[in-house]
Amino acid sequence: MSLAQALLDAEGIEAGYGAAVGSGEGASQVLFGIDLSIRAGEVVTLLGRNGMGKSTTIKTLIGALPLHRGRIRFGETTVAAAQAGGPRQALRPDAIARLGVAIVPEGRQCFPNLTVEEHLIAFADTRNDQREAWDLGKLYALFPRLRERKHHMGNQLSGGEQQMLAIARALSTNPRLLILDEATEGLAPVIREEIWKCLRQLKDLGQTILVVDKYIERLLDLADRHLVLERGRVVWQGDSAALRADRSVWQAYLGV
Ligand SMILES: Nc1ncnc2c1ncn2[C@@H]1O[C@H](COP(=O)(O)OP(=O)(O)OP(=O)(O)O)[C@@H](O)[C@H]1O
């Protein structure tokens, strides 16, 4: 993919937990040179069995984990760059968020003492992007349930409603890239379907999305491209038709 076309471009990223790679005790490298590019308007998935590095990749992209080696560019901005033994440059997570990267984390993280509407107002970013900005009316049109619950506190919501609120809250920042990490984890099937429907609507609106989820069959209908991770490396990538057709990928890397 031409780098100029990509909204997000990560090259050779290495990261992990503990101290910087190679610096001694406690260091644990998880990512071993991930390349990942996403064009504006694309929906891309990160797939792979448990513990293969999907969440670690996301944490590195949003600046929550330091980059040990590689380069991450978002739009026109280099958000992180590091060479072995060389200089490191990195924006803080809040600066990366302000560039237009919003994450819907695992576990939703709603505030128990804010109402639904307060969640949606408190984080809103009214700077206008090229696309039309999200406002309360549009968010409630996407999630009618949240309109019905707008005066309820975060801790009075069902798991599904909390998840919808987490997505709506992320959208209220008008992100250029929306990242969902296991957003349908632990939800009832009917609620999961509502979330998928919403993601489909977002895609049709041109929202760029990076998604990690276990329900691969549903992602095939939604996403443009998929990357499969195995022990911190990209071992396969392609579009939905290619993934559907290649059962060996499913057997080798997706535990299906
Ligand atoms: N906070 C942490 N400290 C140390 N090691 C961690 C931490 N979080 C994850 N790991 C390790 O990093 C590796 C990759 O984990 P990661 O969470 O990125 O996997 P994943 O592909 O997202 O899978 P899952 O669906 O299980 O979250 C695993 O070996 C995991 O044990």
What would the keywords be for this entry?
alpha/beta, six-stranded mixed sheet, five-stranded antiparallel sheet, globular, nucleotide-binding, BCAA_Transport_ATP-bd_LivF
Structural class: alpha/beta
- Kindly identify the CATH topology of the domain at 92-223: Rossmann fold
- Outline type: globular
* Strand content bin: 25-35%
* Average pLDDT: 89
Share of helical residues:
25-40%
Task: Summarize, please.
The protein is of the alpha/beta class and 256 residues long. It has a domain at 92-223: P-loop containing nucleotide triphosphate hydrolases (Rossmann fold), CATH 3.40.50. It has helices spanning 54-61, 93-100, 116-122, 136-142, 144-148, 159-171, 189-204, 216-222, 240-245, 247-253, and strands at residues 6-17, 28-39, 43-47, 69-74, 77-82, 88-90, 101-104, 177-181, 208-212, 225-230, 233-239.
Task: Note down, in words, how this protein is organized.
It is built from ten helices and eleven strands. With about 260 residues, the chain is of the alpha/beta class. The chain has a domain at about 90-225: Rossmann fold. The strands form two sheets. Strands 7-8-9-3-10-11 form a six-stranded mixed β-sheet, sandwiched between helices. Strands 2-1-4-5-6 form a five-stranded antiparallel β-sheet, with helices on one face. β8 (about 175-180), α7 and β9 (about 210) form a beta-alpha-beta unit. The longest helix has 16 residues, at about 190-205. It is globular. The protein starts with 5 loop residues before the first strand and ends with a helix. The model has no long low-confidence stretch (mean pLDDT about 90). Adenosine-5'-triphosphate binds near residues 17, 51, 54 and 56.
